[in-house]
Amino acid sequence: MERTEIFTQEEKREIFELNAVLRKNIEGGLLPTDYRFIKTEIGRALEQGKIARDSFGFHPVIIDLQTAALVGQEIGHHREIIISILLNRCVQQGVTAIEDIKAKFGVSVTNILTNLTQINSLYAKSPTIESENFRNLLLSFTNDMRIILIMIAARLVLLRRLFNYDNKEARIQVAAEASKLYIPLAHKLGFYKLKSEMEDLAMRYTESDIYAELSRKVEETAASREDYIASFIKPIETRLKALPHLKYRIKGRTKSINSIWQKMKRQQRPFEQIYDLFAIRIIIDSEPQNEKGECWQVYSIVADLYTPNPHRLRDWLSVPKSNGYESLHTTVMGPEGRWVEVQIRTERMDTIAEHGLAAHWRYKGIKSEKGLDNLLASIRDTLQNLSEEDVNENKFKMELYKDEIFIFTPRGDLFRLPKGATILDFAFSIHTGLGCKCTGALVNGRNVPIRHVLNNGDQVEIITSNSQTPKQAWLTIAQTGRARSKIRQALKEITARQADIAREMLVRKFKNHKIEYDEGMMDHLIRKMGFKRLTDFYQCMAEGGIDIGEVIKRYQELTTPQNEGNEVTHSAGGYTYSNDIEAGRSSDVLVIERNLKGVDYKLSKCCNPVFGDEIFGFVTISGGISIHRKDCSNAPQLRERYPYRIIEARWSDIDKNGSLFPVMLRVVGHDDIGIVNNITSIISQEKGVIMRGINIESHDTLFSGTLSLLIDDNAKLRKLIDKIEGVKGVKQVKRG
Questions:
Q1: What's the pTM?
Q2: Is residue 406 classed exposed, middle or buried when 0-12, 13-18 and 19+ CB atoms within 10 A define those classes?
Q3: Would you state the pLDDT for residue 554?
Q4: Which helix (H) or strand (E) holds 60?
Q5: Were 478 and a residue from 1, 280, 483, 718 both cysteine, which residue would form a disulfide, CB within 3.0 to 4.6 Å?
Q6: What DSSP element (H or E) covers 232?
Q7: What is the spatial distance between Cα 105 and Cα 99, in angstroms, rounded to a whole number?
Q8: What is residue 181's DSSP assignment?
């Protein structure tokens, strides 16, 4: 059976030529073993059909080879970058394991490939950018700034290959993407050559008629322009030749088609009235210590020959641009009354101007890992300080969102959230209804609860239930203002609905008892019972905190003249409280003891009170009482929202007869050998203390742990905490 050819004959020739370029020029040397490994892995991927042509019909292997060659030409053929570009597809498709890459090539290549894999996943839906969030996400993934350089080169390769592509709409889409992201990035990083080519290609695809017309006119005027450049340069060369210590070269550069078009629009003039279509560049071969002096010496010669425009002098010698660009620009009045831009720089400065920040370090020579780190730090600093500036006469502002994350839906839609956002925040950012029904989520295919904190680039599918409703505790889980606002609104609506149902039920009970319902009298009773708002009363009734029969009884007492003004005391299963609760709380105290009968109470798990702690009781919806520490994190909220359900409580003074209480301790300290053993040894020697469990996690040089204990009283707990804090290396001990 004949095998279908993977590459055309023309593509095979391209691959052969590109291979020769890469093997010849890679700095640091592409080892024979590197080449064999890459060739083998790409061959396996092709045999398995894992590398398919893209949506444009281009073969990814050729795209990657061209990208590697372009990166090599512009920023140096660094071995790690080239290997990463060429193995990228194999890692993406699972042909080559990332663990094998790390073992063979080290951490640096692994990091580059990990970032490239993440970014390439962004293009799974479409090969072009769809939103501002999408672009921000692309940047937020780039922990290694070499990724930005690779992405710029890859986009230029794609733009070049689209020249003969038939689908005009696709060309326009890719060109628009380049204009929004890659061209401004190339400008900021100083890759002016790449930027200029991308601008011209983008204009060629998006404004093809204008581009064609301007190209024709530039070509038609080329001969006269060359004559003018020669006449302009001649007197300068005569003066420079008189200075034998100066080694120089002069070249005239016609401005790009896009640059000319932008100038026409800015000046609102036709092509024929744009005279500065070119720039003269004087490049000096100068020693580093003589660079500035010799550049200014050349400037003085030019200024003597031609009148300079004082408003158009740009001194980037004294203060270079943030991307490393150094040059001296002046605009002078040349023959025939035409303005001419003159750029004066050294060979070193010209290399940096052509090839950007990376060339600045390549010129010096990167001979160590430290040198490469310095390069990446410079690029990172440049990108992190992007500001609003005039790029192609359009304002472009782009920031790296250090305090934000970007989250995918299963369909590939993007949402931007603050760092620390939870599943609940994400659900409410999509839709309020989805948030209210949220019970959890699938994050990258794994089940997580609503309090799970999201990471940048997570793909999240929200899980819902029709029986789910917002809870008060959600306000502590949600981190975004939007989510908390929606939760409060939903809680109010639920409260209002429950209050309406409770009121209807109460009115119906009155009718069943053949009691005339008087709104004013009912309002008086509700306020007498300590409720400032009617909704609070009905909400409490809906939650089971108020017995309807008791309300009817008190209403009848209130409407009976002989009982008005009397106080009635009611029993509640072992403790008593007064009906006169205008202050919102009971005047009696619930005494907690081991043999307490007639009272349904339990120790709250949110704060785990221990004998000796200051405590209070909270009447739950079911009628039972939950015992909390007074310094419980939930205490302020309970007192503010439900003051009428708070009961004063204290421990019994009688012997607690060996009762043990559960306690959680959180410990943070230096991750030193033996510190955990020291802590557990102290606990084991304490009487009346039992360890139920321990959970320790290490974070760089620190550890954090949770100790689950049983202990008999607060005093012993305080002493134990003091002893643990005294262990060398322990930084903090807190109750959970």
A1: 0.51
A2: buried
A3: 80
A4: helix 60-75
A5: 483
A6: helix 222-241
A7: 10
A8: I
